[in-house]
TrEMBL record:
Pfam families: Sigma70_r2, Sigma70_r4_2. Keywords: DNA-binding, Sigma factor, Transcription, Transcription regulation. Residues 22-86 form the RNA polymerase sigma-70 region domain. PANTHER family: RNA POLYMERASE ECF-TYPE SIGMA FACTO (PTHR43133), RNA POLYMERASE SIGMA FACTOR HI_1459-RELATED (PTHR43133:SF8). It comes from Tumebacillus algifaecis. Belongs to the sigma-70 factor family. ECF subfamily. InterPro entries: RNA_pol_sigma-70-like, RNA_pol_sigma-70_dom, RNA_pol_sigma70_r2, RNA_pol_sigma70_r4_t2, RNA_pol_sigma_r2, RNA_pol_sigma_r3/r4-like, WH-like_DNA-bd_sf. This is RNA polymerase subunit sigma-24.
């Protein structure tokens, strides 16, 4: 019910809509970045997603969370761009490096991070989506199902297969 109030407030005036869009923009960008791995592609998807959210916010019915609805917009925009341009994931978010780590540990962490990102980039988009939504955005199976329009069983199956493929790519270097 709170989501409907937020939407009603956002639709009450152009200034309120602008505030709402500024509030959700970082969330949209983060999702787009984790899906694409490229800053430029994430910015493009963010702009397109913001436009779509702005245009269709009045159509939000309150079924499922507003967060899930926005995720769905971003994922669908990503899929459209993927079909148009064949986007690829290139680099993993830098971070998680402890300032107390030795140089060797930092180098090893960076190499592992790059290998992981390469493996994620090699995943088919349908596996990459569920992996990102579950492990980066910490969404529940139900939320992922709402975003991707899948049943819980389909989400679990994709996650299982995606994790298996990711393990194979990460440890075995299998690109097929």
């Amino acid at each position: 019910m709170q989501d409907k109030v937020i939407v009603a407030d956002a639709l009450s005036s152009p200034d309120a809509l602008s505030r709402f869009l500024r509030t959700v923009e970082p969330f949209i960008y983060q999702t787009a970045y984790y899906l694409t791995g490229k800053k430029a592609d994430a910015e493009d998807i963010t702009q397109e997603s913001l436009w779509k959210v702005c245009r269709s916010l009045g159509q939000y019915q309150g079924q499922g969370s507003l967060r899930g609805w926005i995720h769905r917009v971003v994922v669908n925009t990503f899929r459209e761009q993927l079909r148009k341009k064949r986007l690829t994931v290139v680099e993993l978010d830098e971070g998680l490096q402890s300032s107390e780590s030795s140089v060797e540990q930092q180098v090893e962490m960076k190499l592992t991070e790059e290998r992981l990102h390469t493996a994620i980039a090699a995943l088919p988009a349908n596996y990459r989506e569920v992996i990102v939504l579950r492990h980066i955005h910490e969404m529940s199976y139900q939320e992922i199902g709402e975003v991707l329009e899948l049943t819980d069983a389909q989400v679990k199956t994709r996650l299982f297969r995606g994790r298996e493929k990711l393990k194979s790519l990460f440890y075995g270097g299998d690109q097929a």
